[in-house]
Design goal:
Helices cover 44% and strands 16% of the residues. By secondary structure, it is of the alpha/beta class. α1 runs parallel beside α2, α3 packs parallel to α4 and α4 packs parallel to α6. The longest helix is centred in the middle third of the chain and has 29 residues. It binds nicotinamide-adenine-dinucleotide. Nicotinamide-adenine-dinucleotide binds next to α1.
Length: 246
């Protein structure tokens, strides 16, 4: 059985479907302590309370808007101080919007890239500083099948930002390898969460015949954070029910 015993983690986007499922998965696999963060404070605290009630794991909720470098820096500094060390950074915060190319305003383009790419880079860099000092760590970033396919139903800023996540993560993996910092991505396909509610995904388009759940993605995030993945860096795990095959 996978075990994260004694490890610590920061999970971003933890009020959302995939982030909360990952937090629950890590807690069920005996992680030592976690900082959960999201811009939606109330939802975050509710999720954290549920997970602690179920598993007894120590969770610190820190609300933050991760689009700004300053907030990323403050978040990681506070998390590292409260947790004592930082073994795992799992980045699930992200935004997408249903629509077509004519729906994209300049503001929306910037908003998408600010959280999906810019904020992601700065929080990873802050985690690097901590992990480098402590002799290693593990970073997992949420990309998307849309990075390769161009996306279904979403405006084009989203798949473009996720393609950037794939490349950025490889770049960070190269920078981190000699410091024993592993950086990998998980690329989900169609997953039922608040983000995709109302998108109207059709399970019949998925070879495995169903829309995925947050837990499907959490399984991959657990494996990548575990000792079983200690020789894996710069990789991407596809969690998409087979849609990449079509
Ligand atoms: N659901 C899917 O089908 C799917 C598919 C591929 C990739 N993904 C990716 O997986 C990740 C999680 O998606 P989800 O489906 O759980 O979405 P979600 O909308 O349920 O959760 C995303 C979370 O990110 C938070 N967030 C947004 N902007 C933020 C900011 N500026 N600062 C801090 N937090 C912020 C939101 O409040 C939300 O709780 C995202 O990166 C998404 O792009 C999802």
């Amino acid at each position: 059985m996978f075990s994260l015993e004694g490890k610590t983690a920061v999970i971003t986007g933890a009020a959302g479907g995939i982030g909360a499922a990952c937090a629950q998965m890590y807690a069920r696999h005996r992680i030592g302590a976690m900082v959960l963060t999201d811009v939606r404070k109330e939802n975050l605290e509710e999720r954290a309370a549920q997970i602690t009630a179920e598993t007894g794991v120590r969770i610190i909720s820190l609300a933050a808007d991760l689009r700004k470098e300053q907030e990323d820096r403050a978040l990681i500094a506070e998390a590292a101080e409260k947790l004592g060390r930082l073994d795992i950074l799992l980045n699930c915060a992200g935004v997408s919007r249903r629509g077509n190319l004519y729906d994209v305003s300049e503001e929306q383009w910037d908003f998408t890239f600010d959280i999906n790419v810019k904020g992601l880079f700065f929080i990873c860099r802050e985690a690097f500083r901590v992990m480098e000092k402590q002799g290693g760590g593990c970073i997992i970033n949420l990309a998307s099948q849309a990075a390769r396919s161009g996306g279904i139903l979403v405006t084009p800023d989203y798949p473009s930002s996720k393609a950037a996540v794939l490349t950025l993560s490889k770049s960070l993996a190269k920078a981190g390898a000699a410091k024993q910092i592993r950086v990998n991505t998980v690329a989900p396909g169609l997953i039922a969460t608040e983000m995709t509610a109302g998108y109207g995904y059709d399970p019949a388009t998925v070879p495995l015949g169903r829309i995925g759940a947050g837990e499907d993605v959490a399984g991959a995030a657990l494996f990548l954070a575990s000792a079983y993945a200690s020789y894996i860096t710069g990789a991407c795990i596809d969690v998409n029910g087979g849609i990449a095959m079509i």
